[in-house]
Amino acid sequence: MNLKRILSLGLLGLGLTLTMATLATRYVNASDHDDGEVDTKGRNVNLTDLYVFREQDQNPNAGKDDLVLIMNTNPRSLARQQYYFSNNALYEFKVTRVTDKDATPTGQEDVVLRFQFNPPNEKGEQEFKLTVIADKKIVAEDTGKTTPLNSEPTINNLSLGGSQVSVFAGLREDPFFFDVEQFFRVRAGALGIGPQVGFRTTDKARDFAAGYNVNAIALKVPRSLLQGHTKATTFDVWETISVKDPRSRQFKQFERLGRPGINEGLVVTNDFLNAFNSIPPTADLSPAAAPVGAEAKKTLIALGNDDNRANALLGAFLPDVMRIDTTVASGYANALNAKGSPIAGRKLTDDVIDITLSVLTNGNVTTDNVSYEGTPDNPAQGHQPIQPQFPYLALPN
Asked: Range of 245's domain?
């Protein structure tokens, strides 16, 4: 049930040059934080969330030109249990340099930050290699180690192409918060396939991520590393996981995530969800996406939008990437471009669901009554405090 989350209408772009049925057949081993359920998926190759923010907006004492990128995987990791990254996968942040914050995302891979993990050693550590690929050329590589459960955090300070980069990889509490169960009931009622209900009150709402951990990759990079030879200050970011095919021995994209939103919230058909995870943002506007777009539009209309507004919403969030304008303070609701698309990244405690519910329901629903901190009268929600230093994510349960 990840929620890629409501604003990620990029799920509409299941294009390529194939029909949707063909895509669904070819890519039956895709998934997400649980969107696109299949028998063969492993949680350690299952994305949950992407966070991108200026570090100074999380920590006023941090350098003003550093950005933090966080990839969370392995949803529903139980407390006090060790989980590992796959040693048969590529975990990648992908970045486009953007010259106009109002421009339609291109999905061009100007910079790729690639992580590959070795099997764990006797201490429960995994060595990883971080490769920086810029303009389709490998420009730097360095190695580091993960942090085992119940250990002091290992902050790997790496030198990559003249840039100093910090990396944390290991278990942390899942920071996402949302009453997922009730959303699906609300959606079913709106679509006429269940009783009409609203969200639960604050004292009864259930945060489906509370108490769970995730495998996190947190990366602190200077803006100059992403800029390369340019002066770009705005970037489109998304993340992917690719798994080595046992027959061809080639890596194939298995997962993809950009904006927080809901592919599985607006698209009901599981095969469409699977197929979306296997394509790049460049395919999001393909004509072959029409069947998925129609399904998402139907949901948007059921949630209270007229035809014109549903079309505008679909157009505002494609292709599916996380845009960050580094000249403004980070925060999911802090800035929009001319198309009405968020362009200020996402911080760890941003209530992206409340923001998104308000947008997608045309103001008819403004909250799911779940917050990061939770409430004293409801033990079914609430998360541990964010840490004051990098990697900022709360300690694991």
From this structure: 9-360
Q: Is residue 389 part of a domain?
A: no
172, part of any domain? yes
pTM (predicted TM-score): 0.88
pLDDT tens digits for 239-271?
A: 999 999 888 889 999 899 998 765 556 666 767
Q: Is 374 a member of any domain?
A: no
pLDDT per residue as tens digits for the range 146-162:
999 999 999 999 999 88
Question: Looking at the 3D structure of the chain, how many domains does it have?
Answer: 1
> What is the pLDDT averaged over residues 37-58?
83
Phi, psi of 135 (to 5 degrees): 50, 40
Residue 391 located in a structural domain:
no
Q: Mean pLDDT, to the nearest integer, of 216-220?
A: 98
pLDDT at 339: 84
CB 352 within 8 A of CB 259: no
3-state secondary structure the chain: CCCCEECCHHHHCCCCCCCHHHHHHHCCCCCCCCCCCCCCCCHHHCEEEEEEEEHHHCCCCCCCCEEEEEEEEEEEECCCCCCCCCCCEEEEEEEEEECCCCCCCCCCCCEEEEEEECCCCCCCCCEEEEEEEECCEEEEEEEEECECCCCCCCCEEEEECCEEEEEEEEEEECCCCCCHHHHHHHHHHHCCCCCCCCCCCCCCCCCCCCCCEEEEEEEEEEHHHHHCCCCCCEEEEEEEEEEECCCCCCEEEEEEECCCECHHHHCCCHHHHHHHCCCCHHHCCCHHHHHHHHHHHHHHHHCCCCHHHHHHHHHHCCCCCEEEECCCCCCCCCCECCCCCECECECCCCCHHHHHHHHHCCCCCCCCCCCCCCECCECCCCCCCCCCCCCCCCCCC
Contact between 330 and 352 (Cβ < 8 Å)? no
